[in-house]
Amino acid sequence: MDTKNFNQLYLKDTSFANLMQKRIFNVLLIASRYDAFMLEEDGRVDEQIFFEYVSLNLSSPPRVKQVNNFDHAFYELSSKRYDLVITMPGIEKSDTFEQCKNIKEKYPDIPIVVLTPFSREVSQRIGNEDLSGVDYVFSWLGNADLLLAIIKLIEDKMNAEEDIKSVGVQMILLVEDSIRFYSSILPHLYKFVLKQSQIFSTEALNEHEQMLRMRGRPKIKLARTYEEAIAIYNKYSNNVLGIVSDVSFKHNGVKDKKAGIEFCSYVREHDEFVPIIIESSEIENQTMALNLNACFLDKNSKKLPVDLRKTILRNFGFGDFEFVDPDSGEVLYTVRNLKDLQNTIMSVPDDSLYFHGSRNHISRWLYSRAMFPIAELLRRKAFTDISESQEVRELIFNAIVQYRKMKNRGVVAVFKRDRFDKYSNFARIGQGSLGGKGRGLAFIDSLIKRHPILEDYQGVNVTVPKTVVLCTDIFDEFMEANNLYQVALSDLPDDQILRYFLRAKLPDKLIEDFLAFFDVVRRPIAIRSSSLLEDSHYQPFAGIYSTYMIPYLEDKYEMLRMLSDSIKGVYASVFYADSKAYMTATSNVIDQEKMAIILQEVVGTQYDDRYYPSFSGVGRSLNYYPINDEKAEDGVVDLAIGLGKYIVDGGRSLRFSPKHPRNVLQTSTLDLALSDTQTRFYALDLKNMQESFSVDDSFNLLKLHMREAEKDGSLRLMVSTFDPYDQIMRDGYYDGGRKVVTFANILQHDAFPLAELLSMMLEFGSKEMGRHVEIEFAGTLPSEENKQGTLYWLQIRPIVDTKEMRDDEVFDLPDEQTILKSNSALGHGIMNDLYHIVYVKTKDFNSSNNMLIAREIEKINRRFVEKGENYILVGPGRWGSSDTALGIPVKWPHISNARLIVESALKNYRIEPSQGTHFFQNLTSFGVGYFTINPFMNDGFFDEAYLEGFEAEEETRFLRVIQFEKPVVVKINGKKNIGLVLKPGIIVERTENTNTI
Question: C-alpha angle 240/245/248, rounded to 5°?
Fold first, then answer.
C-alpha cells in the first residue's frame, strides 16, 4: 500500500464552516391574506418556518414578508434584498406567470416559486402557462413542511457545485415531472435527510461542531426532464449517494413513458453499484427495475412515503450499518458509529467484508454521515479480490484512527464517558470558562493542527498530553454548595483553609467521568490550576497556584480519593495568603478569580517506584542574554532531565538558543561543564499515598541525584561521560566516569530533532499570538515502547513585548555619577519615581543564611506594600532559587513591590544569572527591571560604599534600607542591554516618568 498517497487522501480535514455559504434569509410571499392563511392554521408563516428550523436543529431561519399584490411586491424588491420570491395565484385567471416573468427580467438572480393549491383545473391551466419566469411550481397539499423543502431545495441548488466539488458532499437525485408528486415527496425526503443528519451530527465533539456538521448532509437535486437528469448526473456522477426516479417524463420535449428506464440504464452503464429506486404507477415496470438491480416502489401505494423512507434508509447508507453473511443474509455485526466500526472491522469475516467493500457500501455509509476524507479514501481503494481482505481491513482501521486523531485535534470536545478513548485529546466537563492555561492548551492543540509539520517531523510528533478541563462553573458549584466563601476570604492560615476545602464535597456527577478518564490515560495525572487570570496577556499569574501530581493506581477508588483531594487543594490555593498578596499587587479582586482545573496525563516513563519524563523545559521566543552571534529574536531554551519543577525552582538547567544548538556556553569549557550543569532531578514518587494532602504541592515529588537516573537507564542521549584519567569529556554514555548532563547527542549530533522542533514551536507560537511567547514542554526519547519519541507541548503564554516601551538612550555616564551599572540589563525605558534601595550587606555574607535573608525581605516588602511604595532590590546570587546555595529563596509575593531587581556576584560567590523560572516570567510581565552585575570581573558596577555613607531607614542583621530625599533615576536600553541607576540629583535629559521598564 502506498502510505504517502494514503496520507494525502484523507489527512485533509473538512471545513464544514465553509459549506452552505449561500443561504436564503429573506423570503417575499406574494399572496392574498386568505391564500397565506392556507399555508398554516393562523397565518404566521415566518413563525412556522422558525419552529420547523428549531425542531431540526437548523440555524438561520429565513424571515418572510407577505404582500397582497405585485405592485407592493415590486416596491419591496426595490427597497430590500430578497433571496426568494414565492407567489400564490388564485383559482381565477390571473397574470401571475406574466408578472413572474417581469420580476425575473428585473431580478434574474432571485429564484421564483409558484405555489398553487392542488386541483385538476389548476394543473391543466399550469400546463398551458409560460413558465419561463418561474424556477419551480409546487402544489400545496396541506403539508406544513413544504415551505422548508422549497427553501432547502433552492439552497441546495445554490451551493451544490461548490460544496460537492470542494469536499465531496453527496447528492440524492430525484427525477420527477409530476408537480403533485414531487410536492408530496420532497418534504418527506428533506425531513428524512435532515433527521438523519441530526443523528450523525451527534458524532461531532461539541454542540458547535454538531451544528456545522449538519451542513455536510447530502444535497437533493430535482430534475424534471431526461436531459436535466442526464446533465446533473454527468456533472456529479462521482458524488451520487442514490437516485429516485419516475419512469414517465419528458425526453426531447415529448412525454416518454420509458424515459426513466432509459436514464437508469445510462446510470448503470457508468456505475453498477449506485443505489437506484424506480417508482411508477404501472406495476409492469417492476421487472425492468429488477433487471437494472434497482428497487421498485408502487406510486399507487397509500404508504408510499413510508416505503420510500425505508428503502432509502436501507440502500443509501443511512442508519446503522449491518455486516451480513452474503450467502444467508444473516446480520453478523451492527455498527452504529465510527468507533463501532473501528472496534468491529478486524472481526468481520473476509466474505462479508468483500461483499460490502467491493460494492462501496462502507464508503457510502461514511459519505452519508459526512465523513468525506475517509469515505473518499475507501472508495478510491478498488477492492477487486477477496484475497485483499486483510489489507482492506487494516486500511479501514488505520484510516479511522488517523481520522479520529485529526478530528480530535484542535477541538475542545464535550467529555462523554462512552466516547473518550485513547484517540481523544482534549475535552471539557462543564459549560464555564477553560481558564488561562486551559485556553492556552486548546490554542496549542489548534495551532498544531494548522501546522502539520509538527505532527511528523523526522518521525517525531509534537502533541498535547491527554487533557480534561473542569470548567469554572464546577468551581462555582463546589464553592456555593459547600458554603466556602466565608472561610476562603477570611485571614485563616493556609493549612486551615485547605482543611476546610478537603472536608467539602465535589459534585457526585464527576465520579463516573473521573473513572472513565483513569481507564483511558492509565498514567499518573497532573492536577493543574487554570484560573481566569492565569496566563492572561498582561497579568500572567504563573506559578502562584498549586499543581499536584498523583500516581496511577490499580485501586481506582484510592486514586479517586487522591484526585478529589488534589482538586480541592488547587481550589483552596486561590485563597492562600500568597495568592491574596499577589491579587493586591496586581490590583485584582480575589472574588473575581475563578478556577478551572486541568487534569492531564503526566509525560514520562515509570522506573520502579518513580516516574519522570526524559526531559522538560521552558522556551522563550525572546532571548534577553544572547551570546556570540545569537540574536534576541532567536529565542532561548532551558532544558533539564526529569520533571519541570527543577527549572521552575531555578535549578541548573542547560541553556541554549534553538537556532544555535551547538553554541552552549555551559559546556564550552570542561570546568563549566563540570560545575554548571544539572546534578539533581525531580521525579514523582509512586509509593507516596499520603492520607492528607499538604499545602506543599510537591510533597510526593522526589529530588534525586543524577546517579539515580543512571541506575534507571534513562540518561542515554542526554549525557556526556567525563574521563577523569584523561581529563576529557566524551559525548555520549559510556561505562565508568561521571555522567554530565550536556544533551550533546541531541543538540550537537542530531539524535533527536529537539532544537528544530522548539524553534518551530516558538516561531509559530509567536506569529499566531502576535507577540513574544514563553512555552513549556516535556518529552520522551525513543524507546522500545515508543520507537520515535514524542515532544509534548504543555503551555504557551505571552511575554510583554518590550518593543512597546520607550526607546530611550542610556548615556555612558562616569561611575561616580551612578550607583549601579549593568551590561546585562533586562527591560526598557526610564523610571524616576524610586526613593528606596534595599540591599543585602556583602560584608560577612554567607549563603547558608539565605533562608533567613528571604524572611527579612518578606517583612520589609510587606511594609512597602502597605505604604504603596516601590524600591530597588540588590543581592547576591539567584533571586527566587529554591536551592539556597544558589541564591535567596524568595517567592514573587515577597518582593512584589520591587521595580528593579539586581543580582550581583561576589568575589567568592559567583552564580550564573537566573532565567527559566515562572518567577522570572513574572518579573518581565510586571515590567520590573533586571540587572546582572559582576564588579570583580569588570562587568558592571555597584557602589555599595556610597550607600554605606547614608543612614539606614531600617537595618537588620542582613539588610539595609536606604531612603533618598530625591528620586534615583533608572535608565535601561533594552536593545543594547545596558542599564544604570543614577545618584539622586544627577540631571539627565528626557527623564519624564514613563512608569514602565
Answer: 150
